[in-house]
């Protein structure tokens, strides 16, 4: 579904209302004592009342304003709509950081037009930062974003949330081969790392085991800033799984060649 610039503007304004609502639900719980549940699975997967309250607040606004739109959220799953448009929500991306008091988390909001995400928001209310990407560019608050040039992995700063996300020996080995050639390797960051790539402070991010709600909001931000984000085989990253993001298209081609065989 093709959206006009006017429609993108309308949905961007609404996405900021969603970010404000999520922030109001989350902030009372950050750096406060709260119960944490484990969803289970291969890795520790925490969830809190803040995650649930923020998603509920966003869903209520979407259902009231755009009742035909679909919603996909981390905590409540999928609600199909009659429209091709779907809001993709992760109320707190980086819950592990959230429960340890680190401000490396954010609320992710994407609008998918039925073919790809065309609008993305990462909101970090504690630091007062809001990253937005559209087909017309990307911004941190009101400042335009631009990735930096870095065509050689030997000069690159690489980030990854955790090495535990590589769920097969081949994927772990492919990641380690890339990391071994980078100038600087840092773990942690979750969605914040992708926004730092869009700001020009990080050159490459290599991850695996992602869900659609982990990545769809970040795609328009990175692409709007001039970067590239794909799956390890060069396809769309919107379904999650194995994802690589680079600020420089030349670096992306180099890293992709090292990862492609392991997907």
TrEMBL record:
<dbReference type="InterPro" id="IPR020583">
    <property type="entry name" value="Inositol_monoP_metal-BS"/>
</dbReference>
<keyword id="KW-0460">Magnesium</keyword>
<dbReference type="GO" id="GO:0046872">
    <property type="term" value="F:metal ion binding"/>
</dbReference>
<feature type="binding site">
    <location>
        <position position="93"/>
    </location>
    <ligand>
        <name>Mg(2+) 2</name>
    </ligand>
</feature>
<feature type="binding site">
    <location>
        <position position="90"/>
    </location>
    <ligand>
        <name>Mg(2+) 2</name>
    </ligand>
</feature>
<dbReference type="InterPro" id="IPR011809">
    <property type="entry name" value="His_9_proposed"/>
</dbReference>
<keyword id="KW-0378">Hydrolase</keyword>
<keyword id="KW-0368">Histidine biosynthesis</keyword>
<keyword id="KW-0028">Amino-acid biosynthesis</keyword>
<dbReference type="InterPro" id="IPR000760">
    <property type="entry name" value="Inositol_monophosphatase-like"/>
</dbReference>
<feature type="binding site">
    <location>
        <position position="92"/>
    </location>
    <ligand>
        <name>Mg(2+) 1</name>
    </ligand>
</feature>
<dbReference type="Pfam" id="PF00459">
    <property type="entry name" value="Inositol_P"/>
</dbReference>
<keyword id="KW-0479">Metal-binding</keyword>
<dbReference type="InterPro" id="IPR051090">
    <property type="entry name" value="Inositol_monoP_superfamily"/>
</dbReference>
<dbReference type="GO" id="GO:0000105">
    <property type="term" value="P:L-histidine biosynthetic process"/>
</dbReference>
<protein>
    <recommendedName>
        <fullName>Histidinol-phosphatase</fullName>
        <ecNumber>3.1.3.15</ecNumber>
    </recommendedName>
</protein>
<dbReference type="GO" id="GO:0004401">
    <property type="term" value="F:histidinol-phosphatase activity"/>
</dbReference>
<feature type="binding site">
    <location>
        <position position="74"/>
    </location>
    <ligand>
        <name>Mg(2+) 1</name>
    </ligand>
</feature>
<comment type="similarity">
    <text>Belongs to the inositol monophosphatase superfamily.</text>
</comment>
<comment type="pathway">
    <text>Amino-acid biosynthesis; L-histidine biosynthesis; L-histidine from 5-phospho-alpha-D-ribose 1-diphosphate: step 8/9.</text>
</comment>
<feature type="binding site">
    <location>
        <position position="214"/>
    </location>
    <ligand>
        <name>Mg(2+) 1</name>
    </ligand>
</feature>
